[in-house]
User: Fold this.
Amino acid sequence: MSNSGVDPEIAGLKVMVIDDSKTIRRTAETLLKKAGCDVVTAVDGFEALAKIADNKPDIIFVDIMMPRLDGYQTCALIKHNQLFKKTPVVMLSSKDGLFDRARGRIVGSEQYLTKPFTKDELIGAIKSHAKH
Assistant:
């Protein structure tokens, strides 16, 4: 096993990260690229919806608090689309609330991660939900 950080279990998977924070997008992208994932980012739900069709991600991470279209609305739109409803969606939130978790489940998200997330949490979520 080489020490490059590439994780053969998730290498080659296409991951989308939707967050209006440049820092979060950059952090997630750096971590995931090191693990061997193909990463697509979007600043909000509108940009994400345009990119999902072109990129067909294996898993999507979406921030809850975003302008224009929040994470719940974005997740609901993804899950209502016949082509993408099976795509796993993981919600990202800076607050760890029961209400937020429940609401995330209602719109069809697979998991909920609290920010700041760790590399292990991100990769663990991909391993749990995304299939090669």
